[in-house]
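A quick aside before the break. I want you to see a complete sequence-to-structure record at least once, exactly as it would be stored in a machine-readable document. Don't worry about memorizing anything.
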Amino acid sequence: MRLKCLFLLMIGLLSLKNIVVAQQAITNQNIFDTIPFIPEHGAERLARFAKEPVVTGKIMFLGNSITEGGNWKELFNDSGIINRGIGGDITYGLLKRVDDVVIRKPSRLFILIGINDIGKDIPEEIIVDNYQKLVGIILKKSPDTKIFIQSILPLNNTVKGFPQHYNKAAHVLRANKLIRQMCVDMKLDFINLYPLFLDKQQKLNVAYTNDGLHLNADGYKLWAAYFKKKGYLK
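That is the input. The structure line, written in tokens, reads:
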């Protein structure tokens, strides 16, 4: 009986070890396959992108729902601007669809991604590592594209309807810090949108959001006005 118990204990310990090893095996190389990042809406967006004619040399905005929600053509009075935002997307998603970007060889590319990664508890270091991979591919395949990296926007967890799994303001700050340093290291233009949308409590100003996460029409107007002031699209 004692030998049987000892045997079962050893089996249990081996199983636990295997679980730990399996967990450790989820690295930046294969985590892509473990996280669903393109829901049905994303598939519809990708299908729409695939039907669009390939026109090169245009301005492109790339990211998640924050980007998708902007009517950039109207905001900048430029019918040629390309919106490549997909609601729910993460850095792995941009890596998977980067070819759709580089074949169009945009003159200027504005990237904003990361809040959905944070919502899925993907470490900030991996977010930045994916950013580096993404930028590396674009620089190699579309070397004339001028790349602008935008900071992740602030949050406001006091707004009604705020999705609580995004209640990670400290992670946003850390990610932005690492993203900014990456831009310094890679000699990229960093656009710090974060303070633009803050209120006195250092949260996303309720004047620019309806849910504490996404921007409303006034938020996008503020964004566009800031870009025009800085001359980012020239």
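Two observations worth writing down. The CA atoms of residues 109 and 147 lie 5 Å apart. The chain is about 45% helix and 10% strand. We'll return to this after the break.
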